[in-house]
Amino acid sequence: MLRSHEQSIIDSFFDYFKMVVEDRGENLTRFSTDGQDSILGGDYIFTNSTKFVLTEFKYKEKGIKLEGKKERMLTLCIELDKD
User: Fold this and answer.
1) Per-residue pLDDT tens digits for 12-46
2) Under 8 Å between Cβ of 46 and 55
3) Considering only CA atoms, which of 51, 49, 56 is closest in space to residue 76?
4) Most Cβ neighbours (<10 Å): which of 44, 48, 53, 68?
5) Does residue 70 lie in a domain region?
6) What total number of domains does the chain contain?
7) Domain of 75, in residue numbers
């Protein structure tokens, strides 16, 4: 059975992101969307309590390219980018 190693990508990203944020003197918290990414628009939300990052992780590059074809995700990104 072919398995995705998406969680290991997430863990590595979080470790790096947390180090960068802490170097700036801030705290970072992460919240898993518990597999509800198709509804919420991402796998994790990272926040320092004033700003947030909504992330969708992919193990393979072709998965990233497919996200760009999802109309709902495109609309969400455009709307979030307005702020």
Assistant:
1) 999 999 999 999 999 999 999 998 887 788 899 99
2) yes
3) 56
4) 44
5) yes
6) 1
7) 6-81
Mean pLDDT on 62-82: 80
At 70, list the tokens.
């999802």
Answer whether 58's CB lies under 8 Å from 73's CB: no
Buried b / exposed e across 25-51, counting CB within 10 Å, b at 16+?
eeebebeebeeebeebbbbbbbeeeee
Q: Which two tokens stand for residue 74?
A: 């495109």
Ramachandran class of 59: left when φ > 0, alpha when ψ lies in -120 to 50, beta otherwise? alpha
Q: Is the residue at 1 inside a domain?
A: no
Q: Write the DSSP symbol of residue 44.
A: E
Name residue, tokens 């990233």: 64
Indicate the average pLDDT of the chain: 85
8 Å CB contact between 55 and 41: no
